[in-house]
Amino acid sequence: MLAPLGLMVALATVVPTAMGHYTFQNLLYKGVKFPDYTFIRRTFNHISHFPLFDLNSTTMRCFEDENIPNPGTLTVKAGDTVGFNVDGRIIHEGPLVWYMARAPTGKTAATMDGSGPIWFKINQTTPYIGTTPAPIERFTWPHYNATEVHIQIPKCIPSGEYLLRVEHIAIHIAFLEGQHEFFGACAQLKITNGLGTGAPWPFAQFPGAYRTDEPGLFLNVHDNWVQPDRYQVPGPPVWTC
Ligand SMILES: *[C@@H]1O[C@H](CO)[C@@H](O)[C@H](O)[C@H]1NC(C)=O
Ligand SMILES: *[C@@H]1O[C@H](CO)[C@@H](O)[C@H](O)[C@H]1NC(C)=O
Ligand SMILES: *[C@@H]1O[C@H](CO)[C@@H](O)[C@H](O)[C@H]1NC(C)=O
Ligand SMILES: [Cu+2]
């Protein structure tokens, strides 16, 4: 159920977004901003910027367009920080989630299709607030309004070829089941200097990792939240070194 105030707030959040959606189209590494879709697989929404709604779609793997050219693979040292420039701004509420997947035997970052239980999560964000209970919308999401996002490649992962998957899940209208919006992209990386002492775990697959009725995807962020730090980010737990 939705109170009239909640609905007004929700609509106010929805209306300006038609023209304000976002993509992750430029890789950032060591102060360099690479051209559009260089080392990043070109996404299905590279022109429209539309969100993906269907979490059962294979497009969930890398948000990839059809018949894309190989964007190339960037060599990156384990422990280094890699970023994505955001085309637009992250103008919806929701978590930023990072995954990696190692290329299966016989495949490379460029040739792997992202199928199977190969994705492990390396970071995620949860909302924070100053006071409890949180007055309506007085909680904040890290990366709200961001124009770039950054992630440290875990130091301990084995060297090898990987996809790095960035995902922003917009949940401002997720009080309606299925109205979560997914934005994301995959970069093709060759990781060197990995300590190799870590064993990433557990693995998830796309589609399959998320359900439309799970608490992190079917909720009303416009309600007062007593403990938003308990927000349950979809997918497996974060793996750390
Ligand atoms: C997604 O797939 C699951 C498992 O097969 C199914 O239960 C669910 O209804 C599907 N959801 C949608 C929106 O198609
Ligand atoms: C996740 O990223 C944030 C920065 O956005 C950082 O402060 C935090 O330490 C990272 N967590 C892990 C487990 O790497
Ligand atoms: C987003 O950032 C821009 C530029 O810094 C600023 O003008 C705008 O007020 C910000 N919007 C929100 C909602 O914080
Ligand atoms: Cu939207």
TrEMBL record:
Coiled coil location: none
Matches recorded under InterPro entries: AA9 (IPR049892), AA9_LPMO (IPR005103)
Keyword Signal carried by entry: yes
Catalysed transformations (reactions): [(1->4)-beta-D-glucosyl]n+m + reduced acceptor + O2 = 4-dehydro-beta-D-glucosyl-[(1->4)-beta-D-glucosyl]n-1 + [(1->4)-beta-D-glucosyl]m + acceptor + H2O
GO CC term, one of those recorded: extracellular region
PANTHER family to which the protein is assigned, alphabetical: ENDO-BETA-1,4-GLUCANASE D, PUTATIVE (AFU_ORTHOLOGUE AFUA_1G12560)-RELATED
Name this polypeptide is given: lytic cellulose monooxygenase (C4-dehydrogenating)
Natural source organism: Orbilia javanica
